[in-house]
Amino acid sequence: TQLLEQSPQFLSIQEGENLTVYCNSSSVFSSLQWYRQEPGEGPVLLVTVVTGGEVKKLKRLTFQFGDARKDSSLHITAAQPGDTGLYLCAGASDNFNKFYFGSGTKLNVKP
Amino acid sequence: DAGVIQSPRHEVTEMGQEVTLRCKPISGHDYLFWYRQTMMRGLELLIYFNNNVPIDDSGMPEDRFSAKMPNASFSTLKIQPSEPRDSAVYFCASSLWGQGLFFGPGTRLTVL
Predict the structure, then answer these.
(1) What is the pLDDT of residues A53-105, one digit of tens each?
(2) Cβ-based contacts under 8 A for chains A and B
(3) Could you tell me if B44 and B35 are in contact, meaning their C-beta atoms sit under 8 angstroms apart?
(4) Considering all CA atoms of chain B, what is the largest pairwise distance in Å, rounded to the nearest integer?
């Protein structure tokens, strides 16, 4: 049983389109992180959100932490082929040290 | 700066053999994590250390798995004896308290 559920599992879009990926849980997390993983490599940290309702922007990527700190979303504006990869959310336990990963969203951006 | 280093990158072995995976964390990081990734189960936390001490090993599948961290710059994950269902990509990651994880490139293990 996954502590964190991500949706959709797979997403294939054309370059220039917008998309949103969701990360949901029934548990409260002290912080939530988003990672991107490319084939044959380890996940790479994109962002950490800590406060309920927090919104962070990283160029074309917008991350939001739910008010109750149980869910998060990642929105990509004008997707590019370089955004292709597996997007993973991870929730941190109360002591900020144990990280539970979601099931992942596999994004393919076609040129 | 060197990132997290893992070796070997690929390991193919036969059922029943002992497998040892190695990890060198980022210098100065005081947390080290071992994860396993499969298509079916995603990324699973196996064990993590703080200042070389194992804190939580509740994710270790069974007694065939063991992990050590003899010093701040080295950790091993050992499987003995290995089984085909252990086939997966094993990641090591390190971090500072409250910070994000820095992952190594992973070891792809295939047990025949």
Answers:
(1) 999 999 999 999 999 999 999 999 999 999 999 999 999 876 767 889 998 99
(2) 53
(3) yes
(4) 39
